[in-house]
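User: Modeling request: complex.
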Amino acid sequence: MSAAAPLALAAVIPCHNDAATLAPLLGALARLGPVAEVVVIDDASSPPLCSTALLHDAGAEARAMPPGWLRILRNSFPVGAGAARNLGLTLVTAPHVIFLDADDMALPDLAHLMRDLAHDPAGHCADFCIFQHHDTRGDQERLWGQRPFDDRLWRQAGLSHGALNPVSETQAALLAQTANYPWNKIYRTAFLRDKGIGCTPLMVHNDVELHWRSFLLADRILASDRIGVVHVVRPSGNRLTNRHTAERLRLFPVLDALATEIALGARPALAEAFNTFVWGLADWIQAHLPPADRPALRACASRFWLDHTSPALRENLRARRGPLLERLGIG
Amino acid sequence: MSLAYPTAFRAFLDNPAQGAIHGKHTAFCKGLALHVDPDLQMAGNWRSPSGRLLELVLRPAASGAWTGLHLTLDLPDLAGLRFLGLAARAVAPDEVLIRACLRSGLPGGGFLDHFLPRHWLAHDEAATHHDLIHLPSQNALPVQAPWRELVLFLPCRAVELHLHDLAILTA
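Assistant: Request completed. Predicted assembly structure:
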């Protein structure tokens, strides 16, 4: 039994008026151990984030971290989480990075996962490791873990058990269809930089590009059943997640570009997975849009259908997801 | 309640390790080993992830009579104890029925087994299992024994078992 040196992890956290939740997250990261640096992008919070106050509220472990452990950069006007994450990534010095939301909570299993990665030769060279999370929407039902939709995909992939498993191409096509979150993956920093992978600088859906290009361009992916992060979902309020306007239609050019890149890429299984994902996403966007914006959404969806959905896949989708396509006005 | 397993076992929980299953005896750490009937021609692999006990993948090539995970207990003297048992958390992609027993060595050689009363079914959801035996009511249980083990008997077939945690409880 050998005790491998721990892998150093950087946490990049965009924050807009979330100091109250950011402080306990910083405390949790300090207690974990492998988090060597934290880069917070203050996306024009009012009042501005103050590192001294944050560290004070984060607790003794965070205050005991070495100077420079917490760096805060401030945008003078809000640019959204995607652009903030991209900025944060440019500042990271640690070989591994995780993108967290300011109201997430890091769990001890994240540290265990880092130890597993350090010990396993595959862990050093994996481009990213996707792990499980707890979604607070399950709290009312007293369910611990992921939402049923994601859980089904993990099970279908045969990856719902095991602290660290390699992910095959077929399995990757299933895991890629889980919710496109940035904070359920530990990335090799150089992988993101070398491949030019980042978030889309949009206020909403910024993480779709990061998620899918990671699955497309990674040579080695690992998966862990560990629940490393609690993701807090607040169904109301003024968070970006709850912004349901025509702004969401700006995602479609991104989806077009991704569909083209994936179709030309080396992972054919991913193309169908991405197309299937788009229809689920379009349906979700439409369900939350004001009625006046829905025709524009349907027009975007129709264009995507014509440009990126093969005849074979159209038949498949009609058979499997007929009602969804009807809702989107696609016959 | 107190814990009764060796210090080495705690270190094993904390530090990742992995290896292959081979032959009739695979030692994972001091005090924790897999013993199998040689007729099984057992192969497979194991991993001890950080903070978890053991992920076992067992692939026998033939039939056999026993497969057991043996945990050495530092409990030569049971005098004054009324209960002994285990608390564990496990998951298995395909159901695995486990029987746990307290094995007591005999001074002249050989041993006696006292099975814990409950069957333990590890299944597709990580679940906690606990079980106790009432020591004063066990016939022929030697109060003093030169050695003792907890043995988890596993099915003699292909098995994948993820034993996340295991504690020995006494009262």
